Amino acid sequence: MNQHDQEERTRIREAMDRLLAGKAVASNGSLTVVALAAEAGVHRMALLKRHVDLKNEFYERVRSEAHQVPESERRLRKSVVELKTTIANQNAELKELRALVTLLTLASAVLTQDKKASMGQAQAPELPENVVPFRPPTA
Question: How far apart, in Å, do the first and last CA atoms of the chain sit?
Answer without folding.
Answer: 90
